[in-house]
């Protein structure tokens, strides 16, 4: 099957598979900070994948996802910065729009941006999971095997992590709101 792919498409597939590995590790993390840092690395691979597949809106928006992650970590809760990211995404999408398929990365960008700036923990992961579902559909439609698998596994891993966080919240309701304490508790649960 892969022998029928041109060099560019094959390079896109490889980038998608690299992103897959990084994303699974990221979404398995209960630490928001670790999750966001690993997502930066995965999104570099996704940018390259979309470039190789000539999916320009997805490529530019994924590049903006990297900027969004950095800004969301620094300006958590800032609606002004969030709106700026959304406006930049809208402008980028306007200049790179090719077909209706580009609507999927745009919608994913909006959901992910809202989740990263305004939410934490389980709520953030729900929005990121919805965004991953849209990215999965986008990858499927452009023919990226690695990207489709990566986003599909992100969705599944994200669901598992949400369940783990919900269990930790039920088990330790008094300390759940303190992320540093939660990280210690959930890591101890994993080792037992």
UniProtKB/TrEMBL annotation:
Pfam families in alphabetical order: Imp-YgjV
Nucleotide-binding recorded as keyword: no
Keywords, ordered alphabetically: Membrane, Transmembrane, Transmembrane helix
InterPro entries: Uncharacterised_HI1736/YgjV, YgjV
Secretion signal, residue range per the UniProt entry: none
Transmembrane segments: 9-29, 35-67, 79-97, 103-119, 148-166
Name of the protein described by the UniProt record: YgjV family protein
